[in-house]
Amino acid sequence: MRTLRLVTTLAVAGLLAGGVALVAATPASAATAVFSVTNNWGNGYQGQVTVTNDTSAPITSWRVEFDLPSSSTVSQSWNAQQTTSGSHYTFANVSWNGTLAAGASTSFGFLVNGTGTPINCTVNGASCAGGPPPTTPPPTTPPPTTGTPVERHGQLRVCGTTMCDRSGARVQLRGISSMWLNWETAPYAENLSALRWMRDNWNLQVIRAAMGVEPAGAYLSDPNKARAQVETIINNAVTAGVYVIVDWHAHEAQNNQSQAVAFFGDLARRYGHLPNVIWEPYNEPLQVSWTNVIKPYHQAVVSAIRAADPDNIVVLGTPTWSQDVDVAAASPVTGTNLMYTLHFYSCTHGASLRAKGDAAIRAGLALFVTEWGASNADGGLDGRACLPEAQSWIDWMKANGISWTAWKLDVGTDTTNLLSPGAPVTGGWTNYLHGHAPFVVANMR
Ligand code: MG
């Protein structure tokens, strides 16, 4: 049998209470095993196991097994096929991550309800062996800062290639996007209690109101309903003291420019005096010309906004589903406090898209990631999560001071659905995190 090595870091010291450890006596040729805890919310945690092929030849499959104390259960897993028998859990590779070249690694993750840690761990039948428990204390939630995000930062502006607050300090906002408001399964984004809960428990600083425009039932066919949803979210954001992005969630907005001009002109007159509001006139243009199609649209909408609101930030969508920020950088829109949209989904987009972002920044653009997911570009229909690449993106955004809102606040089976079935509309979602949510939340804090 080819051997595997499981690399584990027990990052949360509290989870070792009672002396539970994964370390087992292991023949020299067998696997080492531990697992990492990437998020701990007291009555549960997110575990991650990295499987490494420690041999000099490829392997084509792997299987990790462990037991949990009966007080704890795996509520969800990803990037592995999970089977459960009582308190015994088996995780086998899925189709895309079974083959590992010599020395290569892959990871799978799981959510545990309860604080018990795995025991009796094996990899392909051999005992997992692990390193010593970590000596580094776990990252903890930062102490609460006085005041709401808007009380702390006030009116925002673009400063160079980043965003600054009223005192001139660089600020990186982090938060979440709503689902297409016309397709929400429940009015999560419109709930004030939920917004406060996310602010206080996730450290959410900004919410994006993704107002669908083109589909049946969205803005073009039911403008009063869609506008009312957005205004509810704006008013809630003002009450909760968080920032709010008003997103014209369209793919062919240039076909409805007059409606967009009227919409943003109206809202800018009524809400443009508030420091909370950020305008986003075009979610994701398709592969159409920046200079001939998208830029003229932006210029028209920015003019309408600036007629009533001279200063709030406007975030501008870019070609190819808001990826070609380098193209926009070659011919920026005229105006002040303008930023540009970059969207990524980490199973699809990696270093080459970050290179476009770097090029845009070098050319002087300020970027805002108004959507991202640790998933395929379709939002994760296959349920797969790509956390290591997502971590590279998180690190890149932090290094460049790029604010972000993660896709998307709703119940569903996609990787990017943040909530699991039964999540109340009023918040309190500690036991309802789904898909990439634990990763999103851990990085918001
Ligand atoms: Mg203003």
From TrEMBL:
| Spans annotated as Disordered | 130-152
Q: Which organism is it from?
A: Micromonospora arida
Q: What is this protein called?
A: Endoglucanase
The EC designation for this entry is 3.2.1.4
Write down the InterPro entries for this protein, in alphabetical order: CBD2, CBM2/CBM3_carb-bd_dom_sf, CBM2_carb-bd_dom_sf, CBM2_CS, CBM_49, GH, Glyco_hydro_5
CBM2 domain: which residues? Answer: 24-131
Which keywords does the record carry?
Carbohydrate metabolism, Cellulose degradation, Glycosidase, Hydrolase, Polysaccharide degradation, Signal
From start to end residue, where is composition biased (Pro residues)? Answer: 131-146
Q: Report the SUPFAM superfamilies cross-referenced here.
A: (Trans)glycosidases, Carbohydrate-binding domain
| Main EC class the enzyme belongs to | hydrolase
